[in-house]
Design goal:
Elements: H1 2-11, H2 25-42, H3 45-51, E1 52-64, E2 67-74, H4 75-83, E3 91-102, E4 105-120, E5 123-140, E6 143-153
Length: 157
């Protein structure tokens, strides 16, 4: 009975009477993350700032010969580091991201490959590190904002 009523509601009446479809919040959250990654590739500080919450912080876990080192990075430090970049110096690519959304909170989790290509003394180097990245976001009236970023930073292999 409910199904028949639903079909009747959808088949009758002008298109403007049909309720709007819900926004794909997982796609919107991932779009905010991709905006940040595009900003890194483009060395566009303003673009990055547009999706980072004012209280954003980054937490990185680096592999080293002595084990793992934990490094917190504030929003201002990240944007300051970006200010000295040239386009193409940071290239972070997510590999099969997973997005979870529950109301105003979202988490994007993905393996990644972060390239830092450069030329030194006429020799091209294509340095890279890999691991896992997570982005935690909240939805505000102006859209999704990244509040936290955490990653593991290890050798690609």
């Amino acid at each position: 009975m409910r199904f028949a009523l639903l079909l009747a509601c959808c088949a009758v009446g002008p298109a403007s009477a049909t309720p709007a479809l819900p926004v794909d919040e997982s796609g919107a959250a991932l779009a905010a993350v991709n905006t940040l990654l595009d900003a890194w590739r483009e060395a566009d500080v303003d673009k990055a700032a547009s999706v980072l919450h004012a209280d954003f912080r980054e937490l990185t876990y680096h592999a080293s010969a002595d084990g793992w080192n934990f490094t917190p990075v504030a929003r201002e430090r990240l944007l300051g580091a970006m200010a000295s970049l040239k386009p193409g110096e940071w290239d972070d690519r997510l590999l099969d991201p997973t997005v979870h959304v529950d109301g105003p909170i979202a988490v994007v989790w993905s393996r990644y490959r972060f390239r830092t290509p450069y030329t030194e003394d006429g020799v091209f180097h294509d340095a890279a590190h890999c691991g896992v990245e997570t982005f935690q976001l909240y939805r505000f009236p102006e859209g999704w904002r990244i509040v936290n970023f955490a990653d593991t930073h290890g050798e690609c292999g």
